[in-house]
Amino acid sequence: MFAFIVKRVVQSIFVMIVIAFIGFCIKHQIGDPVRDIVGISVSAEEREALREELGLNDPFMIQFGRFLKNAAQGDLGLSYFFKKPALEVILAKAPATIELVLVSSLFIIIFSIPAGIFAAIRPRHWFSRFMMGTSIVGVSIPVFLTAILLIFVFSVELNWLPSYGRGETVNIGGWQTGFLTIDGLIHLILPGIALSSIMLPLFIRLIRSEMMEVLETDYIKYAWAKGLKPGRIWLLHAFKNTLLPVITVGGVQLGIMIAYTILTETVFQWQGMGFMFLEAVERSDTSLLVAYMVFVGVLFVVVNTVVDIIYGLVNPMVRITGRK
Amino acid sequence: MGRLLEVDNLEIKFALRFGDLTAINGVSFTLDKGERLGLVGESGAGKSVTGFAIINLISKPGYISGGRILFQGRDLTKMSYEGVRQIRGDRISMIFQDPMMTLNPVLTVGTQMIETLLAHRNMTVRDAEAVSIEKLKKVQISSPEQRLKQYPHEFSGGMRQRIVIAIALLTGPELIIADEPTTALDVTIQAEIMDLLLGLCESENMGLILITHDLAVVSQVTEKIAVMYAGKIVESGPTERIINDPLHPYTRGLINALPEVAEPGTRLNQIPGMMPTLTSIPKGCSFHPRCDYRLDVCETEDPEFIYLENNKRRVSCHYWKNK
Hints:
The complex is a heterodimer of chains A (324) and B (323).
Chain A: H1 2-29, H2 33-37, H3 44-54, H4 60-72, E1 78-79, E2 84-85, H5 86-121, H6 126-140, H7 143-157, E3 170-172, E4 175-177, H8 182-215, H9 218-225, H10 230-267, H11 273-282, H12 286-314
Antiparallel strand pairs in A: 1-2, 3-4
Chain B: E1 3-16, E2 19-32, E3 36-40, H1 47-54, E4 62-71, E5 74-75, H2 81-87, E6 92-95, H3 99-102, H4 109-120, H5 125-138, H6 144-147, H7 157-169, E7 175-179, H8 187-204, E8 207-212, H9 215-221, E9 224-229, E10 232-238, H10 239-244, H11 249-256, E11 305-308, E12 313-316, H12 318-321
Parallel strand pairs in B: 3-8, 3-9, 6-7, 7-8
Antiparallel strand pairs in B: 1-2, 1-4, 4-5, 9-10, 10-12, 11-12
């Protein structure tokens, strides 16, 4: 386990430096912080002095080194618009996004596993064919369109569910959560479905195809020959082996979902990081953009590490928790 | 000696888009209690399909289209799904070809042994564990208590096949169907595994159907041989008689092809040509295109069985009929 953590930390540091570099390049090229900070009435000399003071005239690599040093200490720069540390702005918005992604992941897990298994066991059943057909439609429709359709049907026409915002939230140690109030949970339903609309069909298809492959293997045939009950063969013998590739792909997809939150949050006016990101683009708040990139990078690394640990728990051939 | 298994005129077809293909055509054989039979033939002869058919486990789109399989007097082809499930793994155990592929890689050996017992016996996990340990000892696996907690990848191929044999023994079956149990193993291990299997069959009085292409192995293990070609049995009888005095030209070809028969330093003998595929089985005797003894009648008429030596032997060949 220790060796695994060390290895993973070293990998993560490398990944973070690359992300920081790309982010810093963008910041370096786009926008002028001095113009953002001072007004139009400031003279060219004063601007130049400020530029010197902020270190903006230093060579690129020296500026990057300074940025890395600050970033390592948790200082990702000031958001020009909010006039607050960028990290602080992001941390205030992160709970909304993380909760949204969690709810979507939950939807995906709850629905894709039984649906995928069923479609693998009974590929000719009308319900399996129906699911395979609709899943193609689901994958093909962009998230923002699904979101708008959902709002139209369930908010505008039926008036069942709210169409925007997080509803009532509770503050627990700085974490604004919508999980603890009924209003907050109701507000999570539509954005959660919209965000999972691409990944859910993808996962159903993935589980189905992987499981169909597993069902053809010798060890499944052997399990039948041992006279085991079908339920045990499908849910334990076959499904546990199906999980391995699904976890590998799933981990990456979970990360990609964070990217889709930008669309979902914008349509639903969801006060999370994705919504903030688009606003920051409009205001060319480059510090905040870079901070967002770095923060999402960290999130990616954490998620992938967790996925790797789960993978090791399922697959006995990869023992990351040192045995013996 | 009671009759254990009677396969009577078994016919297996594969349902394909353009119609049904007959894979097994009128296969019959019997097995007494504790008797060992070798099903011999080249790849594609239908040996494995026949073996799997006995426990009703033919891969789709194959299905049993005719005949009876009487196991202890009950017809398995007419039994309910649950009835067959209770017999497979309990009264009839199977040993597969490649031990690297037969055990589930993500479950411990213990889980895979215990679940087999629990599927057929009303017993506690602890008791099932005790039985598993006892059977592992029988197949000469050392420190079985620890072995139960290990995963298949921690064992070598020979060890895994021992575990598969131990699983086969768990329920004390009357019949073991072994589908090429040593083909995937090293030559030195092959002999060990075969000896072990033979010894266990004798001591537990289990019947054995050994499916293999290896006549040398069959001659050491089984009492009877049935030679299959293109979905039919072409010759069957006592092992000793068939090895020493093969009648059917195909059996002769198989024995001649054994490396032991060839002169050292010369090329091995072989049967010219290939086994026909299911779609192109020739008219008449399906072996006639490869046969050295072929007569005109072979090309048009399917030979009937000729019974010899007190009905203990049979061969389907026009050449012997006319003799």
